[in-house]
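assembly run, all chains below
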Amino acid sequence: MLRSLLTATSLLLALPAAASFCPDQPATGSWGLSYQLDNNGQRSGTLEILRHGSDTALYNPDRQIGEWWVLADSKRPRFHRLFGEQQRRIDYTTGDLRALGVNVNIDSIESFAMAPLLSHLKAGDAVADCPAARHYSGEINGSHYEVNWHSALKLPLLLETRKAGQVRRWQANALINEPTVNQRFGQWLDFQPTDFADIGDMETDPFLAKLITQGFIEHAHPTAYNSDGTVISSEGDHAGHGH
Amino acid sequence: MNRTSQILTVLAKAVASALLASAAQAAVLPAHQTSSSWYTSAASDISAKAMTTPRTGTAKNVILFVGDGMGVSTLTAARIYQGQKKAGNQGGEENRLSFETFPYSALSKTYSVNQQTPDSAPTMTAMVTGVKTEDGMISVSADSIRANCESSKGNELVSALELAEAKGKATGVISTARVTHATPAATYAKSPERNWEADSNLTAEAKANGCHDIAYQLVMTPPGDGLEVALGGGRSYFLPNTTTDGEGTKGRRKDDMDLTSQWTTRFTNAAYVWNAEQFAAVDVATTDHLLGLFEGSHMQYEADRADDLGGEPSLAEMTSKALDLLAKNQNGYFLMVEAGRIDHAHHAGNAVRALADTVALSDAVAAAVAKVNLDETLIIVTADHSHVFTIAGYPARGNPILGLVHDPDDTEIRPTPSLAADGLPYTTLGYTNGPGAKNGPRADLSVIDTAGLDFMQQAQVPLGSETHAGEDVAIYAIGPGAHLFQGSVEQHQIFHVINQAGDLGGTKY
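ok done. output:
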């Protein structure tokens, strides 16, 4: 279970290889990690990654928006966008994802796009006070990465990127338990669903019209939300632009 | 004058006309003109056209094909797309989709009562009831208020399918979208809101005032003795939300009704199938009412169909089996067939899937033509509305329709692509708006496979979903009454042609 170690943010900034939080491998198939997001040392939001069997969801509890991947059949992935405030859900079939040119990389989805990048970083030692995690660092596409990678969870406990003076940090700080995860997924199942394919014919629905004109339902490779709650692009661009 | 003498008279006139024309041409046109293959092939086509006589009898059977969102640019691109796949093609542009050889055509004005650019609900309502209505409404008049059940009471419109049922004909609907989607729904259901496809979509007002969802209407309160054929997607709208179907999709119904089992118990000799294997095994000789729901929601795009978990029949296969079943009725039949996913691929800004689905519709029409007697069957092929889909630039003849624009270089295709003012190449196919637009500079397409199945065409105006377009769409027709489609027509005139040609009794002409 949870082993809370260091909590001082200032210390973390000074020592990126040190752990503040070191969870054990959960015994259940439903669990999650909560991350605190910081931009240049200022707290900017919270993000959760939730596992529910073969499903993975990325959820921003502050804005109640999320992305839910159904990956039981790896050849036929499905995807949902979640809008908690409106209790609405947009469902994407495999065909929709293909038509939108979304290249589904399960390793990427399940790891904040980090797993495919690790081979491009230099592996360091085990993280102090968290032997289950190893430190990685290096440059990718002009961004400097500092990562504490938990090999059992296959997730970063710490992800820090630096580019053009911008420092972004994702720090795991809590394990989300099974009842909470199950409650989240159960709640999303009850959201009012709309097929992505139908959105073009539903421009009179105020909620969908807003999404269409804002371009929120776009063809970006959905991976995660940045600290502002907008989608960040996929691998190699954690410090990059939002779509 | 009997029919034989009528035909001989027409033939004589045509031959005389052709001879006169030929003599006149010989006097004024140079040999290199009249011997040109362009000239001779067109002259041959016109001679054949001059000998065509309208089929003025009654259409015992009517088949209405609808390509959802199949505008004229989609037809052009699809014919080239198909043509360039044919061995020995001359560039692909010379190809014709199956229905483009039909003898009669017209342009259809698609506006609805309240919108210049409509959606599928009022357009299909217009086609099957003869009355334009407002967007989002299914076979209720514009006196109704959208999504208000009470306002729709007394404003229901009668469709051609219902008239056919009243005449004792067999009826059917086929769609690669959900069978409860706007286009098929307009033939058999009444709803002031197209999205009321399952009971879980109904508002409290709708329930209180006795409106039923569209899936319910198809099975529980159908026209006449019930549709003989309903094939397409939308399975989850027929199943309770406590069940998960064979492809892992949860039902959407909150009323605990399983409408698939209702279908098999309410109708005689009824069958329900949900995958290709079951569909292939259906014996039409012993089946009188066939429900096939092959996906939880819409069926797969044609380009993805082979990869479906449960297996899906093609639109041509569904059309062919439906016709075998419907033809058992001696009074004739009315069948509506929709290629519903052309529209969806366009909305996603993915041209190739839209074109593949258009070719699938062409194949379905060809399957129907091969099976029916055109002396007693009226076939109409049209679209409900268009899309902002363009064929741009000055690509050379034979330039790949999904490729970058390459200008002609005398008889060759220039090897380097044409460049736009931003110094970048561009594709022949594109969209005025949609998800293919970017904020900022265009992507450099020179290193991208623009013919790839998942390529998204570039667009001008950024929108999350590409939109419908308001220009006219084409109508192609063959069979009794087809000659009534000429020139520019209002979309709701389609019903009146069906009604008159089929003698459905909706109006006396």
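Chain A touches chain B at residues 72-73, 75-76, 91, 93-96, 98-101, 103, 189, 193, 195-197, 199-204, 211-219 (CB under 8 Å).

The mean pLDDT of chain A is 80.

not gonna interpret more than that til we talk
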